[in-house]
Design goal:
The protein has 321 residues and is mostly helical. 55% of the residues lie in helices and 4% in strands. It has helices at 10-13, 26-39, 44-62, 75-88, 93-112, 139-146, 154-169, 173-177, 208-221, 240-253, 263-276, 281-288, 294-303, 305-314, 316-320; strands spanning 184-185, 190-194, 201-205. Strand 1 (184-185) and strand 2 form a beta hairpin. Helix 3 (44-62) packs across helix 5 and helix 12 (281-288) crosses helix 13. The mean pLDDT is 86.
Length: 321
């Protein structure tokens, strides 16, 4: 009698009375998945992301007449019709991985709901991303940038405060303009950051110099019908694009070259200085609002003082010249 096979088939795994009920078609499967996302109270941003990526998945699957019903999708389909095709189209690794993450969430749901017998994502991993150089400001560039707002004007004081808060906290620009007056806790040295992508909130600390600047700005800002912290002369919230353009203009006046003068560069700069000043990765993750340590690890690997110190000890050029 031949030896028993150890690995069970999908049919054997199914317990009696729990047979698979395949979706009618791709649209029905996506609708069921999106409905589950809403039940779990995921943000509209996340749901829109899933819809867009799953729509792209369908187009890739059907490009050469392949059946897009999730029951028929295999790991080979994902690897060849998604990964390889997107690579051949010149898409970035980050874009490919974004689609793969959406695929994983989708097929995990279908497997959990017993709508498919085999999860094609079980043997599919994210593609390795090329490590890129992250642009940051130098200390001299930061100081030059902060000198540009005209602090004899309301808009200058406001912009200076916004720039300083970027470098103090590393918040995203959408988070920055979304701060309300009552989010600022001067007595605790904390600001409540509202996540524009969803319902998550976090507290971000600030220190005494930032506290003094916030108090100065708030006294000049005075009362307003608008509850946003940073407002225009017309008492409306400062728009993301408007602040991005003003920051870029300040960068030109400061003579900053070879680095993009943007709020996101300030965010990278905050992370760099935080790590170099001895901050740990877990605290940085919480401050920046990252959902995983993936990006934080990149900062640590690029900017850790340990790497710089180690290189200073063994530098071939230092020892040669």
């Amino acid at each position: 009698m031949p030896r028993r096979r150890n690995v069970l088939s999908p049919e054997q795994i199914v317990a009696p009375g729990t047979e698979y009920v395949p979706p009618r078609d791709y649209d029905a499967a996506v609708d069921a998945f999106i409905r589950d996302c809403r039940i779990r109270n995921l943000s509209e941003y996340t749901i829109r992301f899933y819809r867009n990526e799953l729509s792209g998945l369908r187009k890739l699957l059907e490009a050469d007449g392949r059946d897009s019903n999730p029951v028929s999708v295999t790991a080979k389909d994902i690897k060849e019709r998604v990964i390889l095709r997107m690579m051949n189209e010149g898409r970035k690794e980050s874009a490919i991985n974004a689609r793969l993450r959406a695929c994983r969430a989708f097929f995990n749901f279908l497997e959990r709901e017993r709508m498919i017998p085999v999860n094609p994502m079980d043997s599919v991993t994210l593609v390795k991303q090329k490590r890129r150089v992250i642009e940051t400001f130098t200390r001299e560039q930061i100081q030059a940038l902060l000198r540009q707002p005209n602090q004899k004007t309301f808009t200058g004081i406001r912009d200076y405060t916004m720039l300083l808060l970027l470098f103090e906290t590393g918040v995203r620009v959408k988070e920055l303009v979304n701060i309300r007056v009552d989010d600022v806790r001067l007595e605790d040295g904390m600001i409540r950051i509202r996540d524009p992508k969803g319902s998550r909130e976090r507290l971000v600390p600030f220190q005494s110099k930032m506290k003094r600047q916030l108090m100065r700005y708030l006294s000049i800002r005075g009362k307003s019908d608008c509850d946003h912290l940073f407002i225009t002369l017309d008492d409306t919230p400062v728009a993301v694009r408007s602040f991005q353009e003003r920051m870029a203009e300040y960068g030109k006046k400061a003579g900053i070259e070879n680095v993009r003068c943007s709020p996101h560069t300030a965010r990278h700069t905050f992370a760099k200085m935080y790590i170099q000043n001895g901050g740990d990765a877990f605290s940085l993750q919480k401050i920046l609002g990252h959902t995983s340590l993936e990006m934080t690890r990149v900062y640590v690997e690029l900017f850790s003082n340990d790497v710089a110190r180690a290189h200073s000890k063994v530098s071939p050029v230092e020892r040669l010249l």
